[in-house]
Write a structure and sequence with these properties.
This protein is an alpha/beta fold. Helices cover about 30% and strands about 25% of the residues. The protein contains six helices and six strands. A six-stranded mixed beta sheet has the order 2-1-3-4-5-6. The radius of gyration is 17 Å and the shape is globular.
Length: about 200
């Protein structure tokens, strides 16, 4: 069995990764379960791939002989030239919260026509193998930004994101239904396929 150490303390995220990879002979653990020496690095990359690698590399410094995994994700809005993008969590400033981020998003979208409101959630997983090989797996969920908040589930921009082909926003969906079509699920499925072939 191989051990995969994940750069996240988010129990939901760890559970989702374990669930997707459950048919493989792997043991998925949060870095926080193993050590208190991990300090979250500054995510100053220009792409999701950059930031995922920064986080994975920080774990690899502590555990050079293990598989390490990190992800970075966010919302890209076409009419805003891809913003909030890598700044999704801090869109409204460092003292961010979901309400402020959403308020700024909707303000910036106030003059955008219905047919120009396309957006996508992006998730990039970075896996660094014990030999140093770096692999990126990207998943996307396309949709649009709606005008009014809908739903109380989820987090972040979920109340304003309506996936293509769906009648419910991410925030109106049950967690298990969201996870079936989410950007992270798609990235995890690519990771799963890679691990099946290579471990």
């Amino acid at each position: 069995m191989i051990e995969i150490i994940v750069a996240s303390g988010n129990k939901h995220k760890i559970t989702e990764i374990k669930h997707i990879l459950n048919e493989l002979d792997v043991n998925v653990k949060s870095v926080y379960e193993i050590t208190n020496e991990y300090d979250e690095p500054l995510e100053n990359g220009e792409t999701f791939e950059d930031n995922a690698y920064i986080k994975a590399a920080a774990i690899r410094n502590l555990f050079p002989n293990c598989y390490v995994l990190a992800d970075d994700s966010g919302l890209m809005v076409e009419a805003l030239n891809g913003d909030p993008g890598v700044h999704s969590a801090r869109y409204a400033g460092e003292q961010h919260n979901d309400a402020d981020n959403n308020a700024l998003l909707i303000k910036n979208m106030s003059n955008v026509a219905e047919d120009k409101r396309s957006a996508k959630f992006v998730s990039v997983l970075c896996l660094i193998e014990p030999d140093g090989k770096v692999n990126n797996f990207r998943g996307e969920c396309e949709g649009k930004i709606i005008y009014e908040k809908r739903g109380d589930n989820g987090f972040g921009y979920d109340p304003y994101f309506l996936p293509n082909g769906e009648v419910k926003t991410f925030a109106e969906m049950l967690e298990e239904d969201k996870n079936m079509i989410s950007h992270r699920k798609k990235a995890l499925e690519k990771l799963m396929a890679y691990l099946k072939e290579n471990i």
